[in-house]
Amino acid sequence: MRVKNVIAMVVCLVITTALVAEKRNITEKDLFSFTWIGDTQISPDGNRAVFVQTTVNAKHDGYETALYLLDTNQPMTPPRRLTNGPRDTQPRWSPDGTQIAFVRAVEKDGKPQPPQLYLLSMAGGEPVQVSALEKGIGSAQWAPNGRWIAVLSDTLIVPVPKVEKKEGDAAKEEEHKSDIRIITKAVYRFNGQGYIDTKTASQLYVFFCGEGGVEAGDALAGDGGSVRCGRVCLASVVEQSLLHVGACG
Fold it and tell me: Which residues contact 102 (CB under 8 A, 6 or more apart)?
């Protein structure tokens, strides 16, 4: 009996020693294996949730984001990956729950391009690109009727006229280009974004989601009251940041 007790104590001591040996302090390299989730959006029927999962890329010099879908009726079930990324963010359910609008920034020549609006059908298939604005888009919101999507995009306040350049002009312009910035506002830069471009301002754009596809509207200009775009009138911003859209005469 004593022998069995001694053996049991030795086994417990070995296991305890092994567990203590495995413990260590956290280091900066542990950041590479972290996974974050955020921007969770519940579907209109409450049965599903889409969220953004963020991980560190393979080169350990940036982050990758993708959309994942979770069944809220089975909380312990692993989420299903919806998009391949690597820069997919801001998912927003359509009012009927059949589509998800999100923002994707694709790469070209190894550099991320301005983020654009995409639509993903929950019936299957690949995401469809909706916007192609020069400065990209953000803050997409569905209209309550599901027929319109409003987005924000930085637009030149005063468009720069295109001038034909002669040979040698580009070199001269590059030589005289100054890096001096004249600051006229208290808020002139943001962390992670850098200096604010004072030549642009956020403008509203609308996209019509009809049976025949998606149609884009022009930039919307505010006149102090309702915001108008051709025959489209965004009368007001209502609760839950959804845009009330109606036809204008």
Answer: 67, 83, 88, 89, 90, 91, 92, 117, 118, 120, 127, 140
